Amino acid sequence: MNDATLTRLAGHFALMSLFAIGGANSAVPEMQRVAVEVEHWMTARQFTGLFALAQLAPGPNVIIVTLIGYQAAGLLGALVATLAMCGPSCLFAFYIGRISERMKGEVWTAVQSGLLPISIGLIAASGFVVASAAAHNAAAVLVTVFAAVLCSARRLNPLWIFAAAALLGIADLL
Amino acid sequence: MRSTGLTLGHVRHGFPPFVRSGLSGTESAATVRGFRAHLALRVRRGSRLVAFNASYALCQFLPGPNVVNLSVIFGGRIRGPLGSLVALVGLIGPPFVIVSVLALAYARFGAIAALQRMLVGIAAAAAGLVLGTCAKMALPLLRDRFALAPSMALVTFAAIGVMRWPLHWSLALLVPVSIAIAWVRR
Question: Which stretches of chain B are DSSP H helices?
Fold first, then answer.
């Protein structure tokens, strides 16, 4: 826990903030790349654990950043990472919110329809990266496939799916 | 009417809805649903719901955490910069405290094997939910006659998910290309 780590946390997440097109979940592969491969703040297994914790916790998806910050540099790290991830995009959003009434017409439509496939690709990458990190055996892959089918098939509180998956984990099947 | 200073009224009326929406869901969609439902019950709901829906549509395309952006834009539209700040702190504050406690617990007990397996199971399921939701979002793209939009999604997926290239460099290239394609085909 030192100033250098805090500075790196702030830098990484402030940059990510402006490139997370489609929401915080879009940046999960980048978070894993930075936290595990670039900065060695944690192991891939720990990252998977933190991702699961963030899904369980109440609140917006972005709180995975708080967990990463805490793991890297304690409570101060959690605060710095969270502020860095929200700050730049909030300022940008506030500004766009102010001028958005004027942003009608063809350019704006092209920007929107151009960004849509990008955000879908990023979110798919996010699901794929976490799924492959969690895929220790065939049962874990089945859990992923089953959850994907259940989620597209009908509305179900995700907590039930998480509870079932957690039980399978405790029973040493994953 | 827009007030210029932060009054007690801001905090009293601004905080609770954002605190509640911040704590209500395990994912953005649930948070947004809960928040919209809460707004619908309030006075002056007509104008606020319109402001909310417009803010929500905008947030789908802005970079950064969606629900956080939503609270900033919506808070700003009903009360200016301070409205944004109140909304932001109301939304992020309580989950931040809860998650910090979770992080502390994880630092202490994270090495327990049963807990690790449990979290791996939950991560596997959560990844499935992300992929399922993504598939639903991607279906309308497939109607594209020249498959350009699905190709952009696929290239983005490969760059970030498979090649693991840095996000900002990849998007600095892909975003202009994708917007240019959308512009040419408008």
Answer: 8-9, 15-24, 28-40, 45-59, 66-109, 113-138, 148-157, 167-184
* Most B-contacting residue of A122, A136, A145 (CB-CB within 10 A), to test interface: A122
A49 lies in some domain: yes
Is A15 part of the contact surface with chain B (CB cutoff 8 Å)?
yes
How many CB atoms are located within 10 Å of the residue B173 CB?
A: 13
User: Which stretches within chain A are classed as H helix?
Assistant: 3-17, 28-32, 44-56, 64-99, 106-134, 138-153, 158-170
List chain B residues with CB under 8 Å of A143.
121, 124-125, 128
In chain A, which stretches have pLDDT less than 70? 1, 152-155
The pTM score is 0.89
Q: Is A87 within a domain?
A: yes
How many domains in chain A?
1
Give the domain range for residue A42: 3-103
Please give the ipTM for the structure prediction.
0.94
